[in-house]
Amino acid sequence: MSGLGERAVTGRPINAEEMIAEARKAFFVMFGFLALVWLLQLANWADHYGLSRAYGVVSGDVGRLPDILVAPFLHWSWAHIEGNSGPLFVFGFLAAYRGVARFAGLSLLVAVTSGLTVWFLERGGVDTVGASGLIFGYFGYVVVRGLFDRHLIDTLIGIVMAASFAYTLTLTVPGTPGVSWLGHLGGLVGGLVGAWIFRDRRPRAATVSEASAATMPGAPGPRADLHKELGDLGLL
């Protein structure tokens, strides 16, 4: 799987042009994602929210188990979708800009962990829909991804996001009426796990080669790679 920030077998760092191309792709992916969610909301509203009633996650109902993959696209009101749209785009873009393929895998993982948490643990008869499980998954992924990838820029982004949106974690504990804290918690766990599963894996041979080269005077090493990355981003 090749994505922004990953290295090819040759060990060549991703350059600035490729970075911009991946960011552009991530932007259009999230724009399309949001457009789909809003089109479904329009159809859902016209049907008096029949889609939410038919495809929401209902705890313990085996027949509704496949709906864990559909429920994130549906909402209960215009206020519901409006509240989710901004965070979904921001965190989704930050999760996707290092590779759309891994973002698709992350989205599937988070939808499953969030949906299963609701399906197993929510009280009976509650019909749960909404993209907030995905939002919390993307948030968790963005916050810790840089630590697993040992990537400076992503680590800094994670610190900023954690400091700016730490208050959202209050929605992963019981207490807010009408909010599926279980879905939020399941999504957050899925995002944290996804940061490890989809971490950047460099070939072992390349890693050993770099370690050996680092001992040679004047040879490129981890510090040179860091300087090159910062230079590509215009930070040096």
Automatic annotation (TrEMBL):
Main localization (coarse): membrane
Mark the transmembrane ranges: 26-46, 76-96, 103-122, 128-148, 155-173, 179-198
An MF annotation (GO) of this entry: peptidase activity
Q: Which InterPro entries does the UniProt entry name for this protein?
A: Peptidase_S54_rhomboid_dom (IPR022764), Rhomboid-like_sf (IPR035952), Rhomboid_protease_S54 (IPR050925)
Pfam families attached to this UniProt entry: Rhomboid
Q: Using the record's annotation, list all stretches that form the Peptidase S54 rhomboid domain.
A: 68-199
Give the bilayer topology. Answer: Multi-pass membrane protein
Task: Please provide the record's keywords in A-Z order.
Answer: Hydrolase, Membrane, Protease, Transmembrane, Transmembrane helix
User: Per its UniProt entry, which superkingdom is the organism in?
Assistant: Bacteria
Where does it reside?
Membrane
Q: Name one GO biological process term.
A: proteolysis
> Which PANTHER family is this protein grouped with?
RHOMBOID PROTEASE, SLR1461 PROTEIN
What this protein is called in its record is Rhomboid family intramembrane serine protease
Organism of origin is Streptantibioticus rubrisoli
